[in-house]
Design goal:
Elements (H helix, E strand, L loop, with lengths): L1 H12 L10 E9 L10 E6 L4 E7 L5 E6 L3 E8 L6 E7 L7 E8 L3 H6 L9 E4 L2 E5 L11 H7 L3 E3 L5 E3 L2 E2 L2 E4 L2 E2 L5 H7 L5 E9 L2 H6 L7 E8 L6 E11 L4 E11 L2 E10 L20 E14 L3 E25 L4 E28 L2 E25 L20 H10 E27 L6 E29 L5 E28 L4 E22 L26 E19 L3 E20 L2 E23 L2 E12 L10 E2 L5 E4 L7 E14 L4 E13 L1 E8 L6 E8 L2 E13 L5 E20 L4 E21 L3 E16 L10 E13 L3 E13 L9 E13 L4 E8 L8 E5 L3 E7 L5 E13 L2 E2 L2
Parallel strand pairs: 1-7, 13-16, 33-37
Antiparallel strand pairs: 1-4, 2-3, 2-5, 5-6, 8-9, 9-15, 10-11, 11-12, 13-14, 15-16, 17-18, 17-48, 18-19, 19-20, 20-21, 21-22, 21-47, 22-23, 23-24, 24-25, 25-26, 26-27, 27-28, 28-29, 29-30, 30-31, 31-34, 32-33, 34-35, 35-38, 36-37, 38-39, 39-40, 40-41, 41-42, 42-43, 43-44, 44-45, 45-48, 46-47, ...
Length: 942
């Protein structure tokens, strides 16, 4: 307890009093003149007269209230403004400084229909604002192309990062859901929101940590909070019918089309979307930031869906139905190095993957409040998916790096006619393989939960119940036709040994889970509560796999009906049936303290677990039972320095079960070069997660500082142990538990406007460390040993923006440094780094013409893989003209005009380094036509 008091005392010392003791405060409220409701985030400025010099400025709070420091007598003008309203001004004069605060009263703004129709901004909105853990971005502060969707706006936000895998982080925290006016949009699906919500409708974007349904209803933290992006539409733009139609065609046979239709009336939302394109859902961007994300193949995507949300005093219903489909043509050239104790092995491959896949998903949410004390929440979700896939793979393995002999080893996997070259390659070649693999998969996933919470009085006492169930079924048929040549093994005639496989593999899984939970919260004092939660979870799964020898069915493919009598060729050694049962008890107790300045939750979680695995292999039956007890504390502390400054610390633990297939001690040799064996002794992994965050904001200078730190430590993480056959080049892998995997990162962001608010500066720095452990093969002892790979990285970004009504100019720069250290292979240590610099410009010309252009030079250095050490000068440009009172837009867009964008990906862990180059179209030109439809309040916009 003494330590807690010391910590709190230290935190209190961090507060800084920024106001002069001699100053008084101007106070007032900005409100809508027609409704009387306060306007949040309206701009209030204090101007010194007669030259209108800006003295100070703020944005209003949630209720429309504001306060301005006032330290010198004289003549002033107070100006209040907000997008979509006429500005309000009030002159004040004081011969001497008053002793008490000055009450300006209610500053009423009237609706400006003309300005709203033409989207004219009368005041500079602060780009970023913060209140506690909520970061608010004003969309009008960032110039985007006309007709742009949310994804383009996100790329311009300070602190936003779009990773190579498409994940989005803002100030170091990954976004999980998108909401519109506080309601889930298509179940919170990020991709749907990013690619369909038009920027012209957006007023503000808020990012914050959203409580789970359980925590919101009961106050009990279950660790399932998510960082969400909440979109607020412009006032007047979200009433009635509105939507967009966007069609485009271009060079390289590229096309794109989108349609979105919405009906918003008060607390009712209806949305219909549809998209079709073959540009991998790529949208135009004139950003001058580095973008290393590559196109992994040629992908055609299709999407259609309906979303709705209705709300009244007692009932709230929201949900969506969505279909997604895509056709993929992915071609890759891969080179891989696998680390073993004495030396590395190398493999090269040419891959072709063609697939057609899709899914239909429906997700619903029904919340009913029959009275003020009772809340009932029902959430069902179901998904049906299908995938038809065809893969062709030609690969070869070498005991030395073939790139030291030939420039492109993927073209020399099989022996060629160059005798001199083949003499060298023959000495290092281990095997070659040709594989034709096709599969057809159908899956059905579903879940439903029912929560009931009842408040007992008004002092915080409540009791809750939750029931849940889930289903996960799949059916897969796979046909594998392979030919593998072993150059180190000879057949009876002295020739290279060749193995042929033609197998049909049928797999089905059925999984069910059921859960029940009870929660109770008891007030100890007026501000302290004791919380209890108990949950029981039961899972039952069945998996069956049958393998058939199809060497007798030459010419058969998966598109044909299964031949008569194929069951007689079952390979018993590769068949199995398995039943898996899992019992989990989750018991937690928490003390929660809520004060004006801070919130503190301290508790413990105990998880007794039991798993029972029964399986059949041929005529043998085996049972495996394991019991595990997990224990972890949980802490959540929030300290509130002010409305715009806070500190948060959070710790929680989480258990993860290994997949049932990984626990089956069955040898899967359908791929003779990659034989897999399960491990019935696998233990569940348990992760310890720590998060620390601090933010502060200065209204007067529009200056923000955001710091976030995260760390994760995993106990009993699962790594593949590999046994290597030097004669065949094949591997036998088995999953095993291992300790030593952990990672951490620190992100700091700084944003500020300069004196006249037309210039803004953004700076962001991040530090990361990853400790990755795994097993590698030791040839002399024919066993595995532990290897550690550490990765230390630091990244810095600096950007500046100048904007006014006619233009926006921006400059961006970044640098990233990484140190990769391999404990057992110090020769593989690398210190790669990347850097970039670029600029972008947007000009609004007469006759409703707009020109946008962005150019960035992004560079890689320090890689052992020479192909990675390269510069890419990326240049995008757009010319557009709007007509028909701004409702129609025609544009010409050019992507990667210098054709320097690459499609290379690189992965690295403790035992493998891999590089793949994909096919893709990055450089093309498209013509766009966009039509905006808007009928507000039942009358068509004019």
């Amino acid at each position: 307890m003494k330590n807690i008091y010391l910590i709190l005392s230290f935190l209190l010392l961090l507060q800084v009093n920024v106001f002069s003791q001699n100053a008084v405060t101007l106070r007032g409220v900005v409100s809508d003149s027609s409704t009387g409701i306060g306007i949040e985030y309206a701009t209030v400025q204090l101007l010194s007269m007669p030259d209108s010099t800006l003295v100070s400025g703020v944005v209003t709070q949630k209720d429309g209230s504001f306060s301005l420091p006032f330290s010198k007598a004289g003549s002033y003008c107070v100006v209040a403004s907000y997008i979509g309203y006429n500005s309000f001004s009030k002159n004040i004069y004081y011969r001497s400084l008053p002793e008490n605060d000055i009450q300006l009263g209610n500053l009423k703004l009237s609706f400006d229909a003309i300005m709203l129709d033409e989207a004219v901004v009368t005041a500079e909105a602060p780009p970023v604002k913060m209140e506690e853990d909520t970061v608010v971005y004003n969309a009008s502060a960032y110039k985007v192309t006309e007709g742009a969707v949310l994804e383009e706006l996100i790329e311009k936000l300070p602190g936003a990062e779009v990773a190579d895998d498409g994940k989005i982080k803002i100030n170091g925290r990954e976004l999980k859901k998108i909401m519109v006016d506080g309601k889930e949009f298509f179940g919170g699906d990020l991709k749907t929101g990013l690619q369909n919500l038009p920027v012209e409708l957006i007023d503000q974007l808020k990012t914050y940590s959203k409580e789970s349904d359980m925590e919101r209803m009961t106050g009990i933290d279950d660790g399932d909070d998510e960082v969400v992006l909440d979109i607020k539409f412009k006032k007047g733009k979200n009433k009635g019918w509105f939507g967009n139609l966007d069609v485009a065609g271009g060079t390289e046979e590229r096309y794109s089309s989108k349609v979105m239709l919405n009906r918003f009336v008060e607390d009712t939302q209806h949305s219909i979307i549809g998209t079709a394109n073959n540009v991998d859902d790529r949208n135009f961007s004139n950003s001058s930031r580095a973008n290393w994300k590559q196109n992994n193949g040629l992908i055609s995507s299709y999407n259609a869906g309906y979303n709705m949300a209705v709300k009244n005093e007692k009932l709230e219903i929201g949900g969506s139905v969505q279909w997604r489909g895509n056709d993929k043509d992915i071609r890759g050239i891969n080179s891989t190095e696998r680390f073993y104790s004495s030396k590395s092995t190398f493999s090269n491959a040419n891959n072709i993957n063609n697939s057609t896949s899709g899914n239909i998903k429906t997700d619903w949410r029904v919340e009913w409040k029959p009275d003020k004390l009772t809340t009932i929440l029902f959430r069902p979700s179901f998904t049906y998916s299908y995938d038809n896939n065809r893969q062709n793979n030609i690969s070869g393995s070498f005991n030395q790096n073939p790139e030291a002999v030939v420039e492109n080893p993927a073209d020399h996997i099989y022996p060629g006619d160059d005798v001199e070259l083949e003499t060298v390659l023959r000495d290092i070649r281990i095997n070659s393989s040709m594989v034709d693999n096709s599969s057809m998969t159908n899956k059905l996933n579903g879940s439903a939960s029912l929560m009931i919470n009842r408040k007992i009085g008004d002092n915080g006492r409540n009791i809750g119940f939750r029931l849940g169930t889930g289903i996960n079924d799949s059916d897969n048929g796979r046909f594998r036709d392979s030919e593998t040549t072993y150059y180190r093994l000879k057949d009876m005639y002295g020739n290279d040994s060749v193995a042929y496989r033609r197998q049909y593999i049928s797999t089905e899984t059925e999984s069910r889970n059921y859960s029940a939970q009870i929660t109770y919260s008891e007030p100890i004092t007026q501000s302290a509560f004791l919380q209890f939660s108990y949950q029981f979870l039961y899972k039952k799964s069945f998996s069956g796999k049958s393998t058939y020898d199809f060497m007798h069915y030459d010419g058969w493919s998966l598109e044909h009906e299964l031949p008569q009598g194929y069951e007689t060729f079952m390979i018993d050694s590769l068949g199995k049936d398995a039943d898996y049962k899992y019992f989990n008890h989750d018991i937690s107790m928490t003390v929660r303290v809520i004060r004006k300045k801070y919130k503190l939750s301290v508790g413990i979680t105990m998880q007794p677990q039991k798993s029972v695995l029964s399986y059949r292999l041929g005529e043998a039956f085996m049972d495996t039972t394991r019991q595990v007890f997990n224990f972890a504390p949980k802490i959540d502390f929030k300290y509130r320095f002010s409305k715009v400054s806070q500190l948060q610390f959070k710790y929680y633990g989480k258990s993860s079960q290994p997949g049932m297939e990984a626990m089956l001690p069955i040898e899967d040799n359908s791929n003779p070069l990659n034989i897999r064996v399960g491990n019935p002794g696998l233990l569940p992994s348990f992760s310890h997660n720590i998060r620390l965050g601090m933010n502060t904001y200065n209204n007067e200078y529009q200056r923000s500082v955001i710091i976030n730190a995260n760390a994760s430590i995993v106990q009993n993480s699962i790594s593949n142990s590999t046994m290597y056959n030097e004669e065949t080049g094949g591997r036998i892998t088995m999953p095993k538990n291992i300790n030593g995997n952990w990672n951490g990162n620190l992100t700091a962001g700084f944003n500020t406007a300069l004196r006249n608010k037309k210039f803004t500066i953004h700076a962001n720095t991040s530090f990361r460390y990853r400790n990755s452990v795994g097993y590698i093969y030791e040839s002399s002892s024919k066993s595995t040993m532990k290897n550690t790979l550490s990765e230390t990285g630091i990244t810095g970004r600096l950007s500046g923006v100048f904007r006014n009504e006619l233009m926006e100019l921006s400059a961006n720069s970044s640098i990233g440094y990484t140190f990769e250290k391999n404990k057992l292979y110090p020769d593989n240590n690398q210190e790669p780094y990347t850097y970039s610099y670029g600029c972008s410009a947007t000009f609004n010309l007469p006759w409703s013409i707009s020109i946008m252009s962005g150019i960035v030079n992004q560079c890689r250095r320090g890689y052992d893989d020479d192909y990675f050490n390269r510069d890419e000068l990326l240049w995008n440009a757009r010319l557009s003209k709007s007509f028909y009172k701004g409702r129609a837009i025609f544009s010409i867009e050019a992507y990667d005009m210098l054709a320097q964008k690459s499609n290379i990906s690189r992965s690295l862990n403790s035992n493998v380094r891999s590089i793949t180059e994909y096919n893709g179209v990055n450089s093309y030109v498209m013509a766009h036509f966009i039509y905006r439809y808007n009928v507000m309040g039942g009358k068509k916009k004019k």
